[in-house]
Structure formats: C-alpha cells, structure tokens
Amino acid sequence: LELMNLHSLKDKLIDELSDGQRQKAMIAKSLAQQTSVIILDDPTAFLDYTSKHHLFDVLRKLCKDQKKLIIVSSHDLDLMKQYINKSITLQEDNVIEVE
Q1: Helix (H/G/I), strand (E/B), else coil: 73
Q2: Which secondary structure element, helix H or strand E, spans residue 78, and what is its range?
Q3: Is 30 in contact with 36 (CB distance < 8 Å)?
Q4: Cβ atoms of 25 and 12 closer than 8 Å
Q5: Pairing of strands 37-41, 88-90
Q6: 92 pLDDT band (50/70/90 cuts)?
Q7: Pairing relation of β-strands 69-73 and 88-90?
Q8: Strand ranges in 1-99 using DSSP code E only, listed in sequence order
Q9: For residue 40, what is the enclosing H or E element?
Q10: pTM score over 0.90
Q11: Which among 27, 34, 30, 36 has a CA at the least distance from the CA of 68?
Q12: Nearest to 66, CA basis, from 37, 88, 40, 90
C-alpha cells in the first residue's frame, strides 16, 4: 500500500475503486508477494501520467534495492525507454530487436 500510495483506499471494496485505482491495487498485490521475479502485462493501463511514472520509479527501485527481475510487456515504448535497462521489441513482421 505504501509503495503504490494506496493508504487512503485500504478500507474500500474493489468495486468502489476506479479503473486506475484497481490497477494500482492489483500491482500492489503482486508486489506484496515478495517474489524475486515479477511479470506485469501492460501495468500502465488506466493510469494517469503521474501514476505511470510513479509505478516505474517503484519498479526501478525494487530492481536496484531488492535485486528483483521485473518483466513488463507494454505498448508505451516512449515510457518504457525512460526506465528500462534491457528490451526486446517485437514488430509486426516478426522482427525481434534486442537492446
């Protein structure tokens, strides 16, 4: 809850949350499991600009401080390039680019 800034929502039912709040709650749930690998499929869906950047700040900190491997699939390439250290890009003609 702390990492995702959700303290104010801790007593709400999932049905009472907006799509963005629900997305943050699902991410917080995955972070709470304390796994060494986290896989997120389009985690920025429904998030506003500030929340997207906050999420990736949190993920980068987890990678650095807790040595987690975080795998993210996303269509938001501009955002991803600001935060990632390795990428695999799939294109329509099945070309794979590794950076």
Answers
A1: strand
A2: helix 77-83
A3: no
A4: no
A5: unpaired
A6: confident
A7: unpaired
A8: 37-41, 69-73, 88-90, 96-98
A9: strand 37-41
A10: no
A11: 36
A12: 37
